[in-house]
């Protein structure tokens, strides 16, 4: 008996990771479905009329997207069956694939171009999802989310459940409760679809930030630099016997922990019928009447020849008798287990320095000499030259490589990495990069390494 495992995700990149993990875990591609709201035409522009990847999918990736929409859509075309664009009543444009669309539209898997005449709620109900839950999931797509479902055998449902939960499925009950507080009464297939601006407002209320692009990291770094740099200090003159105390302040990083709810995945049990065949041997009786021509005189054995009489012989036959007995052949246990992991927190702390100058004489310094004394802009020309020499013909612009150089620059500013060899820190650096830019490490690692080594060596020389 199959079970349907359903999960809602706030962005397409999370859903892409779930689909890939499901396929890698052995789930058949043609049993996985995906429906992503596309009110802003973020995804369908990478698909042609036949629902296939266009030539721009791999190359048309803006610098602020990182491994953005084009790369995600391009990756999905290789791991899920029948990816294409269509419209669903009450939801509007979507990027979709899989058997859920066949259930919603009445069409075959892969025939997803054009407009759907059915509905996503009906499609989910056909797969065994209760109607109330189906309305929640349909509304989640309508508000810009991405739905992933997988039809799994009973003994594989828990594995699919764990994968979706691990990859950040939304807690649909909590999300629906927040909609109801805002006046939502239920999914309406006749309602006007939300606009891209409406969906952006919804996403601003979600607590989970998107990690599909490096633009967020770059922006945060710029803001921090602006805060630290500030404005030039004002010059003050002290009178005789007057003194000022200038404190040297250093921030200390304190890391605590809190328990958060990562989301929920639901498992639905469905009943399916399949034809079976058994053979049984049945016996039947048939009465045979035979007439035989003879020519002999009547004998004593024929004494009753002229007496009226009748005879009766019954025919019997065996019939198949069918009965069914339900037997428990397997049990699926759904539960939770608690594991512990150690996470390395990488952040920056600030420290003030006091610089003492003797006017008209030799310059003196006090305070800390640790850390960087120059900003990222000092190395920008050097990074541009390295890009022109090594990556100018790669098909990516310098703006697309700039986050990689900045990432290396930031690592060299962190004493956790600055004092170690590249071979020692590369696994940790790669994990951090891949968490925000999945599948792009091999393309950008040389730029990251160069930025790290260039700034690290400069800092080492400055403190000698």
Give an account of the 3D structure.
It is built from 15 helices and 7 strands. Among the domains are: 2-204, no CATH class; 367-464, no CATH class. It has helices spanning 12-24, 56-59, 69-77, 99-105, 120-126, 131-142, 154-166, 172-181, 196-204, 215-229, 377-390, 398-412, 415-418, 422-436, 441-462; strands at residues 2-9, 32-37, 84-88, 92-97, 114-115, 146-153, 266-269. The longest helix is centred in the last third of the chain and has 22 residues, at 441-462. It is α+β, with helices and mostly antiparallel strands. Residues 49-67, 108-117, 208-233 and 360-373 have low confidence and may be disordered. A 7-stranded mixed β-sheet has the order 5-3-4-2-6-1-7, sandwiched between helices.
Topology pattern, helix = H, strand = E: EHEHHEEHEHHEHHHHEHHHHH
Strand order of the largest sheet: 5-3-4-2-6-1-7
Mean pLDDT over the residues? 75
Shape: elongated
**Number of helices, where a helix is a run of at least 4 consecutive DSSP H or I residues:** 15
Kindly provide the radius of gyration, computed on alpha-carbon positions and rounded to a whole number of angstroms: 37 Å
Q: Work out the helicity level.
A: 25-40%
* Biggest beta sheet summary: 7 strands, mixed
Q: What structural class should be given to the helix and strand makeup? A: alpha+beta
Which blocks of ≥5 consecutive residues have pLDDT under 50? 49-67, 108-117, 208-233, 360-373
Number of strands: 7
Q: Which band does the percent of strand residues land in?
A: 5-15%
CA distance, first residue to last residue: 71 Å
């Amino acid at each position: 008996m199959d079970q349907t495992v359903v999960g809602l995700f706030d962005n397409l990149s999370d859903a892409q990771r779930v689909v890939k993990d499901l396929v890698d875990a052995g789930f058949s591609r043609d049993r996985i479905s995906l429906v992503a709201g596309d009110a802003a035409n973020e995804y369908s522009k990478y698909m042609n009329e036949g629902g296939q990847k266009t030539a721009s999918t791999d190359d048309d990736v803006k610098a602020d997207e990182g491994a953005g929409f084009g790369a995600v859509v391009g990756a999905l075309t290789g791991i899920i069956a029948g990816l294409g664009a269509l419209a669903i009543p009450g939801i509007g444009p979507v990027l979709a694939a899989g058997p859920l669309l066949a259930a919603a539209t009445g069409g075959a898997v892969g025939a997803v171009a054009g407009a759907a005449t059915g509905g996503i709620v009906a499609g989910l109900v056909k797969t065994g999802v209760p109607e109330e839950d189906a309305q929640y999931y349909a509304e989640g797509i309508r508000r810009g989310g991405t739905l992933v479902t997988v039809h799994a055998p009973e003994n594989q449902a828990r594995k699919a459940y764990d994968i979706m939960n691990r990859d950040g499925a939304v807690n649909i009950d909590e999300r629906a409760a927040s909609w109801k507080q805002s006046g939502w009464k239920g999914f309406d297939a006749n309602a006007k679809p939300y606009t891209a601006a409406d969906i952006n407002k919804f996403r601003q209320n979600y607590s989970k930030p998107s990690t599909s692009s490096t633009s967020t990291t770059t922006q945060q770094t710029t803001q921090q630099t602006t805060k630290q740099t500030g404005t030039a200090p004002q010059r003050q003159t002290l009178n005789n016997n007057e003194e000022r105390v200038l404190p040297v302040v250093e921030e200390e990083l304190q890391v605590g922990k809190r328990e958060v709810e990562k989301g929920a995945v639901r498992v639905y049990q469905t009943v399916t019928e399949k034809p079976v065949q058994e053979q049984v041997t049945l016996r039947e009786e048939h009465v045979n009447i035979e007439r035989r021509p003879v020519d002999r005189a009547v004998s004593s054995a024929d004494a009753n020849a002229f007496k009226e009489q009748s005879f009766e012989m019954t025919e019997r036959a065996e019939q198949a008798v069918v009965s069914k007995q339900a037997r428990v052949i397997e049990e699926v246990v759904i539960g939770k287990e608690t594991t512990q992991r150690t996470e390395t927190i990488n952040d920056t702390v600030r420290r003030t320095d006091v610089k003492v100058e003797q006017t008209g004489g030799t310059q003196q310094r006090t305070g800390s000499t640790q850390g960087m004394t120059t900003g990222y802009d000092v190395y920008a020309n050097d990074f541009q030259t390295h890009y022109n020499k090594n990556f100018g013909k790669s098909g990516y612009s310098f703006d697309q490589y700039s986050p990689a150089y900045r990432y290396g620059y930031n690592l060299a500013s962190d004493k956790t990495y600055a004092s170690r060899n590249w071979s020692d820190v590369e696994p940790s650096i790669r994990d951090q990069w891949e968490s925000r830019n999945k599948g792009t490490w091999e393309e950008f690692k040389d730029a990251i390494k160069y930025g790290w080594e260039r700034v690290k060596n400069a800092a080492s020389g400055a403190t000698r």
